[in-house]
Amino acid sequence: MNKKCSKLESELGAAATLGPVEAGPPCCIPEPWLRVRDLSVYYGAKQVLADISLTINRGCVTTLIGPSGCGKTSFLSSLNRLTDLIPGCRVEGHISMGTLDVRAAKDVMSLRRRVGMIFQKPNPFPLSIRKNIEMPLKEHGLRDRHERRQVIESVLQDVGLWDEVKDRLDASALTLSGGQQQRLCIARAIALQPEVLLLDEPCSALDPIASGVVEELLTRFRGRYTLVVVTHNLQQARRIADYAAFFWSTGGTGCLVEHGSGQRIFDTPQQPLTIAYVNGKAG
Ligand SMILES: Nc1ncnc2c1ncn2[C@@H]1O[C@H](COP(=O)(O)OP(=O)(O)OP(=O)(O)O)[C@@H](O)[C@H]1O
């Protein structure tokens, strides 16, 4: 077993507070899954991303780093077509996921089931803890009540919330702490069995302990989901990244400066801007 795999094993063993997540095979052998070619994004006349080409490997953690405003969220939102919902937003270029042409996909609801998104600020529905997970399951056609209950328990176990909430599933999700709300949002996303999870600064609104729990959870998801994580926390990015992509903005337009394995981007970056950024001297 190579070094990365044995490291993953010890990380899985260390995640004792979380549920019995069944990890898939670790991403030792890169398998391209999301392919982005010549992606440009505009808000009205303003171009905020130019000609981004990046391949994201299945089952791996890819972190997107770069200063505020360089287009990381816009990039994420293009991947599951949340950009469709932004008035005046226009996307050019090609995005594929496996054999699916993302930009041409007609069934956007199914695309978003396959590509879930977690936001910076936890956004549970103002409903009970149970309904937060049950409602999307119903919307996506899971009619059997017993099966829904099983999924609810299983995903709450996965995110380590089950023991904390099993006696108050009908309480409002808004009574949970910020960290618990974020884990509920992750449970809600994984209940739909996505292939890809997009996470936009998932820990930045959380205290260090809650942030650590979510980070540990992401590490355990490696292999089971393809994770694309935006983070401003370079230590965190360094810890979790199988791959990293560094964005920068010139004159308000974001571009991709450099990408590669996390180890290479953080330990031996090639581009002067990347060197300055990962060493805290730019951005
Ligand atoms: N809905 C919108 N309408 C117009 N401009 C927008 C919109 N959303 C983002 N922008 C602009 O697009 C640029 C890129 O924003 P984006 O949020 O993608 O960057 P980011 O790297 O994720 O920033 P941050 O790290 O601060 O979240 C910014 O200049 C921002 O002001």
UniProtKB/TrEMBL annotation:
<dbReference type="InterPro" id="IPR003593">
    <property type="entry name" value="AAA+_ATPase"/>
</dbReference>
<keyword id="KW-0813">Transport</keyword>
<dbReference type="GO" id="GO:0005315">
    <property type="term" value="F:phosphate transmembrane transporter activity"/>
</dbReference>
<feature type="domain" description="ABC transporter">
    <location>
        <begin position="34"/>
        <end position="278"/>
    </location>
</feature>
<dbReference type="Pfam" id="PF00005">
    <property type="entry name" value="ABC_tran"/>
</dbReference>
<keyword id="KW-0547">Nucleotide-binding</keyword>
<dbReference type="GO" id="GO:0016887">
    <property type="term" value="F:ATP hydrolysis activity"/>
</dbReference>
<dbReference type="GO" id="GO:0035435">
    <property type="term" value="P:phosphate ion transmembrane transport"/>
</dbReference>
<dbReference type="InterPro" id="IPR017871">
    <property type="entry name" value="ABC_transporter-like_CS"/>
</dbReference>
<dbReference type="GO" id="GO:0016020">
    <property type="term" value="C:membrane"/>
</dbReference>
<keyword id="KW-0067">ATP-binding</keyword>
<protein>
    <submittedName>
        <fullName>Phosphate import ATP-binding protein PstB 3</fullName>
    </submittedName>
</protein>
<dbReference type="InterPro" id="IPR005670">
    <property type="entry name" value="PstB-like"/>
</dbReference>
<dbReference type="GO" id="GO:0005524">
    <property type="term" value="F:ATP binding"/>
</dbReference>
<dbReference type="InterPro" id="IPR027417">
    <property type="entry name" value="P-loop_NTPase"/>
</dbReference>
<keyword id="KW-0592">Phosphate transport</keyword>
<dbReference type="InterPro" id="IPR003439">
    <property type="entry name" value="ABC_transporter-like_ATP-bd"/>
</dbReference>
